Amino acid sequence: MPNWSKNNRACLTTWSTLRILAQLSKPFDSAGAVTMGKLAMFNKNDDQAMRSSKALMLSIQLDNVFRDVRGARFETGVKQEAAVAEMKAVLEDDTKDVSGLAEVADDNYRFWQEGEL
Amino acid sequence: MSRRRPGGWRGLAACLVLAGAGTSLPAQDEEAEAEKDAFTLLSEMLRKDALSSEPGEGVSTSAGGRRITNGTTDIFDLLGGPETANRILHDLAEGNDFWRFLQDFNFQLKTFQADEGRTGLGFAYDYDRDFGLRYLSDTVAHGVIYSLAARGSVAFDADINPEDFLEARASFRYFHSSGGTVAATEETFTELNELEAAAAEYTTDEALRASPEWIRFQEVAQRYLRSQFYFDVGFSGGLESNQSFSRKNWVLGVQGVADFKAWNPESGAAVFNIFDYPFAAVRFFTGMDPDFQVRGFFPTVLVGVDGVSPDDDAGRGAAGDTGSYWRGRTEISFKTPVAMLGDDVYYFTANHRMYQEFSAAAGVKAADLDFSRYLVLTLGGDAGVFLSFSTGKLPFDARNDQIYQIGWQFHF
Question: Rounded to the nearest 5°, which phi and psi values hold at B139?
């Protein structure tokens, strides 16, 4: 599992955003290991097209919350489409977990007051 | 070295497992092991207790709560516990160049249970790869995306596969998302950061939800959440088949997906989600929600029209029509929470698919090949008891099946 830490703003904000969007119910410590298939958005019986559309919708909303509600900006050289595409790829993969999603978020976003924890 | 190998899909599954295992050996052992076939290799690994190492040292295993520790376990004992094998595969694949090449390919061993008490083993695969996602605007979330995907379930005994329907498709879609949030202020950013850090200190969901920090965080953050409407439309084409490839369809068509989520629980839109009312009552009576509250997670809907060209379809041949035809399809997906036990949420999920051939020939109708419907309902959470019911058939299924499952799942 990639680094899951309270000292990492990307981890904290990914966790709280998924909670505020009612995608998971775990406290921070155990949230990192929650796999994507366990998020509230996804139904394991969906076909691929349905799953892909749901993942894209949620990744767009994560981008919305990160930037509009939490004050994040893209890292230098990162475009919105790339950030959304990378989060979508993680969300579609049942073998990935929340810590992996946070890692992608950390790579693409500079969160508000990041580094001040 | 010779060894009787299972044929067909079992051999393929074993080879996939062992190919991954074979490429994960330490370098100094590779030459010595090179002449051994992969099947023997994994068996020897198991017999050397390589898989009974302490957690964190590599591969960890458990099967039904017991550890695999001695040399009498071979791959078929392992395959008797698919979750164990899945964990081994996952650990072997980490950092493995062979699997990284197929980084979006997921392979999972699984059990199948049909009616009449018949059970068996098999595997499921899932490949999703986006080859391009392009936004068309800096201010509106819309753009295009093209993808390649393949998915299916394969039982070693084809007769018990309740989901005998393999798909591989390429698609090109236009997507559009509106709403979702409104912009907050820098003061809000700072306040939410502070509340979030404090909330992360709580170690149980119950304590977290009752904490003043999380209550305030929700109150502030939800002010900036709005309802989101998403849709995509596009072209898709590919191949459908049963697992033996004795029946195949080449498919080219158009499809659209629509979804609406009222992310703010105070949103008035949620009251229109009539599907969630029964479950809102359950959440209220089980204590999950302090008040009767309908969630704004509306079902997701897919509608498509395909031109279908059958290939090697003996069923349609017997019905007297092997020509191409037009087919409509729909899919509806719904998921909502119903109860909480500790930190675990239990969900009700439903997925309904329908395929209808347009203007089918009389023989096709008589053979009941022009229409298929498949419904799956489940009730369960991350761990603990789960209930599942599926009914109907997918294209290529010869008959309707009704499958009931009740079980217990572990989360390791």
Answer: -115, -20
B210 CB burial (10 A radius; 0-12, 13-18, 19+): exposed
Q: Do B177 and A60 touch (CB under 8 A)?
A: yes
Give residue B27's pLDDT. Answer: 43
Asked if the C-beta of A51 comes within 8 angstroms of chain B's C-beta atoms, the answer is: yes
The domain limits of chain A are 9-110
Mean pLDDT throughout B225-230? 97
Grouping H, G, I as helix, E, B as strand and the rest as coil, residue B151 is: strand
Contact B269, B262 (CB under 8 A): yes
Residue B311 in 3-state DSSP? strand
Domain check: are B404 and B257 in the same one? yes
DSSP classification of residue B393: -
| pLDDT digits 0-9 by tens, A34-63 | 999 889 988 988 988 999 999 999 999 999
B67 shares its domain with B146:
no
Statement to judge: residues B273 and B298 lie in one domain: yes
Do the chains contact at A69 and B171, CB–CB below 8 Å?
no
Q: Does A110 touch chain B (CB under 8 A)?
A: no
**Residue B232, Cβ neighbours under 10 Å: how many?**
25
DSSP for B225-267, please give it.
EEEEEEEEEEEEEEEEE-TTSSSEEEEEEEEEEEEEEE-STT-
Q: Which residues of chain A have pLDDT under 50?
A: none
